[in-house]
Amino acid sequence: MRENPGEEDRNSGQVPKVRAEGFSFFYGKVEALRSLDLSVPENSLLTIMGPTGSGKTTFLKALNRLNDRVQGTHHTGSLLLNGEDVYGKGVDVADLRRRVGMVFALPVPLPMSIYENVAFGPRKQGISSKKRLDEIVEKALVSAAIWDEVKDRLDSSAEKLSGGQQQRLSLARVLAVEPEVILLDEPTSGLDPLSTMKIEELLRVLSRSYTVILVTHNPVQAARVQGEVAFFYMGELVEKGPASSMFVRPKDKRTEDYITGKFG
Amino acid sequence: MTPSSGSGRVSGLDVARRPERKPGRLGMALVRASAFLTVAVLVFIIGYVLVRGARVLTPRFLLGFPEKMGREGGIYPSIVGTFVLTSLSVAIAAPLGIGTAVFLTEYTSEGLFSRIVRFGTESLAGIPSIIFGLFGFLFFVIRLGMGWSILSGSLTLAAMMLPTIVRTSEESLRSVPDIYRETAYALGASRWQTVTSVVLPSAVPGIVTGVILAMGRAVGETAAVIFTAGSSLRLPGSIFDPVRTLPVHFYILAREGISLENAYGTAAVLIIAVLLVDFAAYYTLHRVSKRRSVTGR
Amino acid sequence: MSRKEKFAEIALTVVGLTSVAVLALIIFFIFKEGSPALAHVGLGRFVGGTRWSPGKGQFGILPMIVGSFFVTFGALLTGVPLGLGCALYLSEFAPRKTAAVLKPLVEILAGIPSVVFGFIGLTVIVPLIRDHLGGPGFSVLASAIVLGVMILPTMVSISYDALRAVPQVYREGMLAVGANQWQTVTSVVLPAARPGILAAGILSMGRAVGETMAVIMVAGNATIIPVSFLDPVRTLTSNIALEMGYATGLHRQALFATGIVLFVIIGALNILARAFIRSR
Ligand SMILES: Nc1ncnc2c1ncn2[C@@H]1O[C@H](COP(=O)(O)OP(=O)(O)OP(=O)(O)O)[C@@H](O)[C@H]1O
Ligand SMILES: [Mg+2]
């Protein structure tokens, strides 16, 4: 597989890593995303914020096609990864999901050991050499800044870790399959402020070598992690720009209301 | 329970207007009595059989061969026969039942097809065991030429326990949080990989409990077995030989009045086996609920 | 990889069809083997005939139909109130800890082999009836008592689930307006759980109709229409089990035809139960 994620086409960068063109997504008749136009350059961090039901999760789950599991959905327009439609004909969904990793709101320790949690993805990909797996697991745990805390108990159950540790473990699990894009859906919503800070710090570091898309409904978090911010509202992208300017001078009234806490 | 002195204070509720003490007392007493009676019956049955049977339960009885149609001697062949027959039926029914449950929960969404499968399973659950016996006799014993044998009996019993295993497995598969599946899929796992490495392991305790319970019912089954596995008193040499299982042996001893004493002994063995199986099932289930309460935040 | 996936999917689909296939096979074989007898004797004379004497070529199963009906009805008369009472106690009145101990105990009852129930009926209940009420002891009454106990686990656990499914706010609402616990149960909880309790009754009925070995041991098995609850009876299931061992030819087919009648009755009960469960 890919040796160094992102490295090879780092400088060929005209094509954005992720791009939505007039992309709409429907659950039955509910239009959860409305003609979305959005692009995310490689190795950058985009924070999507918006009130509940604004389509943030839907966007993430369209990108890795987890939404395929929901019955009666359809989409129009296109959603591109490296310029190729993720809904294109020949797309191998399992491969797409390895390239687009996802961390969920609540930490999900799979019912197995810490080691096996991280090795899960690589194993399912067909890697079985113990030595290779050891390397991958260590590297992923180091990148997720949790190696020191778990290196002596890799074989104990992942369910015994604290919430914050479990969430970093989830991140390590994603990193182990060497994704190009990392999606995080409100990853800190169940964590204490300290664990939250650790994750945010980690995301800033990771965004140097991965394309990171973070979803939050907390404008303060969006401001803290910096990078680009997109504001979703009722399935629409209201505005998008660097955190530094959006929080100082929002262009849209709805954005202003949201960040000043008038709703959401 | 709640102190309410004045009657008729609550307008529109005739219940409150009635003199409330008496019917409440009588009703509660009856309800308590029925719970007590139910448990008393259970305790009586188990105690009666165990006490009467205990005298007979010697190593010679358990490990000896029957003599004079079971009037004397032991029940060793029936113990072996019951064990083999039950194990084989579980070995046949468990993969089919669990497979059906996996199919229903993981591979298909509610639709015509799944409704047909569910209809089949539910209907099967309602069919009396004597009908299974008739069917097993016609189909396995005669049509497929398996004769009265462990194999015919096991296949019949497997058909009978299938619905139980499907239902309990389906329940435990559905109780696996969907986020586990999402997590596995999001890591690029295929459906089969997700099912085998994440979903099934989390559901195992519940599934095992269901299988054990089904096994407990199979141990005591008589009507379906007597016409398919036969009633030979000899020790079976292979699964193509007939056997006389414990309940069948017990039935024949008791009904034909061959030996009441040995009948009690056989019943005691049967009850102990069933209790052990039930205990194993509850033990497994108990450990699940403990684990769940830790994980399920 | 994807070939394995495809294989798993196909294999599971096939496996999923086993129960349907088994059901179809059962129906096919029972009907195939039994219908010649129905055709030979005539449906009316088979179902309506009062004489069962295979040696003389008489195949009327009305006594057994009536017998099954009486015995089942008697079982419901004893088992339903007892089971419902027990379920009520467990769900409404018992301390949680007591209920947690009692519920599994009641479920153990479901695991006790039917021959053991029959045997206890034979050695305890039959003599009691003979000595105190008269008659041979082997009777409708003995069968009703034994079956009544045997349907308890079904009755208790399904009604219990139905009672537990009644939202707590209903109870709280009643208690808040000053009703006591018993009034709350009778005027709110029981009516709300009624469809589930009815379903429990119907499923218990199915169990009672289908039970064989226990009934054989206590019913007396005479092929006459019982006129008193102390008379011996023979049920449809017993008829099959008693004679299957040696029957040949038309006699054997008539036993399978008895199976068809049993099958139809059970099928009707299942449809009824399903309708009730759905109306919940
Ligand atoms: N599985 C589904 N089936 C039907 N409708 C859905 C489904 N998932 C989401 N929706 C609908 O799509 C819209 C967008 O939902 P989405 O989950 O993307 O919002 P969100 O921005 O992630 O909200 P939150 O902050 O609450 O997570 C909502 O109106 C929601 O009701
Ligand atoms: Mg969301």
In a nutshell, what does this entry contain?
The complex is a heterotrimer of chains A (264), B (297) and C (280). Helix content of chain B is 74%, strand content 1%.
Architecture overview:
The complex is a heterotrimer of chains A (264), B (297) and C (280). Chain A is built from ten helices and ten strands. Chain A has 264 residues and is of the alpha/beta class. In chain A, strand 9 and strand 10 form a beta hairpin. Chain A starts with 17 loop residues before the first strand and ends in a 5-residue tail after the last helix. Helix content of chain A is 34%, strand content 25%. Chain B is an all-alpha fold and 297 residues long. Chain B folds into two domains: 9-56; 59-295, MetI-like fold (Orthogonal Bundle). In chain B, 74% of the residues lie in helices and 1% in strands. A two-stranded antiparallel ribbon of chain B has the order 1-2. In chain B, helix 4 runs antiparallel to helix 9. Chain B is globular. With 280 residues, chain C is an all-alpha fold. Chain C is built from 13 helices and two strands; from the N terminus they run αααββαααααααααα. In chain C, strands 1-2 form a two-stranded antiparallel sheet. In chain C, a hairpin with a 4-residue loop joins strand 1 and strand 2. At the B-C interface, helix 2, helix 4, helix 5, helix 6 and helix 7 of B face helix 1, helix 2, helix 4, helix 5 and helix 6 of C. Magnesium ion binds at residues 56-57, 185 of chain A.
Low-confidence stretches of chain A: 1-12
Task: State the secondary-structure class of chain A.
Answer: alpha/beta
Shape of chain A: globular
CATH class designation of chain C: Mainly Alpha
- Span from first to last CA of chain A? 42 Å
Oligomer: heterotrimer
Largest interface, counted with CB-CB under 8 A?
B-C, 92 and 95 residues
* Total number of beta strands of chain A: 10
Small molecules in complex: adenosine-5'-triphosphate, magnesium ion
Distance between the termini of chain C: 45 Å
Write out the CATH superfamily name of chain C.
Answer: MetI-like
Instruction: Encode the helix/strand succession of chain A as letters.
Output: EEEHEEHEHHHHEHEHEEHH
State the helicity of chain C in percent bands: over 70%
Helix and strand run of chain C: HHHEEHHHHHHHHHH
Please indicate the percent range of residues of chain C in DSSP E strands (runs of 2 or more): under 5%
CATH topology name of chain C, in short, is MetI-like fold
SSE-based structural type of chain C: mainly alpha
Biggest sheet record of chain C? 2 strands, antiparallel
